[in-house]
Amino acid sequence: MQVRITKKSMEIFMDQAATSYPKPEAVIRAMADYMTSNGASLHRGSGKRVQEVEFAVLNLRERLCALFNHDSIKRAILTSGATMALNTVLFGSLKGGDHVLVDSLAHNAVVRPLFELKKRGVTFSKIPVSPDGLCDLEAAEGLITPSTRMLILTHASNVCGTIQDAEAFGRLCKKHDLLYVLDAAQAAGHIPVDFTAFNLDALAVPSHKGLLGPAGIGALLLSARLAQETEPLVFGGTGSLSASETQPELLPDKFESGTPNLPALFGFLAAIESIDLPTRRRHELELSSRFTDLLSRIPNLRLLGSPEPQSRVAVFSLDFLGQDNGIVAARLENEFNIYTRSGLHCAPWAHQALGSFPQGAVRFSFSNFTTCEEVDLAADAVAGVVGSGGVKAGC
User: Which of 58, 159, 266, 279 has the highest Cβ tally under 10 A?
Assistant: First the structure.
């Protein structure tokens, strides 16, 4: 089945941090092929079609382990996304009396579960960040108490793009025997994420952002320790040990109740197979360098986080000084056909830490499909909204 992607003339999509677009054609073909040529369920029945599904699932787990340097396909859990992955770890492993360290840039996928767990006796402390969005490692160590059990870190911020030193925090967690959870929603597919080198206990990733796959699927990679200590969040049919009235303990079935989103799973596999991380990073760094240079020429504008492209993923939140950021985003779409995202980006803590609360910011974010020409047009539109004239340099 041949499927082609077309983009509406002159539209520039710069909300890649929310959901990547366009998707690779291989992803769309894989999803369509499953729905038109297979249709079987995982672990439900037998025969050629079921075997094809089971092989695809096995292949996806192997690809995830290879990409993130994880040691066991049995502990490569498939979820509905990073939010479900994080909820599974937090609700499944934390109990009353536990203390958690969490960075001040955390997404609501972490913040809201922590506030719910607070009602159950779990406490937490926020790791402070610099104006550039870097977490203070020394301050984090000073916050550790005898009841501290877990540290949760946002690898790359969805607001300012800042990349944290995940390996250094891993050494801190190993030193103090803390469980280490990494939210790599904005890092996966953009920069290297190494489960083993970082000394992780849990890694949460979605398919639909930097990995360029479909929405509705993600992964939770677990250490042997945390896989054993974590209780499942959802109970039900797994297609295994069906005579048992209790949830199986075998992995990954323990955490995978219900029929998975198989069209998305096939798309996720196709997306993972197409990743060339070094090439992607080089391209995004070139675009980031160009964009930050052009932005530096525009007055009445504040870029959240560091201006150094090497220290961030290609996520740029702009505070238009003296203007309503929501109105600015609407103007960018209506007048320039540039799609961004304004507001607090489901991360009010980050905006508080970066001084952009409650007004929020207008976020531009790139993928490996973003072009130099689109970056120039976006910067020129920003200049137009500010009223400073054009800044186009030409690619």
Answer: 159
